[in-house]
Structures are given as structure tokens and as C-alpha cells.
Amino acid sequence: MSSIVPSAGKPSSKAPETFGRPEARSLARRQNAEIANGIVAASRVQAAGTVAATGMHLSAMLSREAQFQADGDPATAARLNYIADSYAEYAAEEVRKFRW
Predict the structure, then answer these.
(1) Rounded distance, CA 22 to CA 59, Å?
(2) Is 1 helix (H, G, I), strand (E, B) or coil?
(3) Residues of the chain with pLDDT > 90: what percent?
(4) Which residues contact 80 (CB under 8 A, 6 or more apart)?
(5) Residue 95 to residues 36, 50, 53, 58, 76: CA-CA distances in angstroms?
């Protein structure tokens, strides 16, 4: 079985020993394009993770604060939980926007 890219020590009869200039330039362009696509995809995933982690942290913090501020009053708890839930929905929508 031969390698697509020949190794320096063992030239293959089935594969050229070197790429010509046009092939080398084309290969480099395609490699660079794939690397760039990978970097963009990784950046999107990392950004979505940051938004999700921040949204989860702040949603939990707001829920705890709503519970503390309500101090057992059901009417106040309902109003404050609505605000906390609205924030959680907003954060979730921001995370969903990362699906391109």
C-alpha cells in the first residue's frame, strides 16, 4: 500500500516524488482553507460555550436571589421568578443563535 504523500527516504513508483509548483500551491491553499474552517468552527463552539456557561451561572444566581428576596411571600416569589425565568429564556435564545 502506498502513501499519498511520498516519504523522503522511500520514493514510490505509484506516487510522484515531488509535487509540481501548481499542485503544491493548490494543496497549500486547500490545507489553509481547511485549517481556517477548523479555527472558525472551534471559535464558534467556544463562544457558544461561554455564552451558555454565563447564562447558566447568571440564571442560577438570579433564581437564588429571587428566592431570597421573596422571603416566603408567594406573590413576590411569582413576580421575581418571572423575571429570572425571562432572563433564562433570553440567555437560551442567545445560545440558540450560534446554530449557523
Answers:
(1) 55
(2) coil
(3) 72
(4) 65, 66, 67, 69, 70
(5) 23, 9, 10, 14, 29
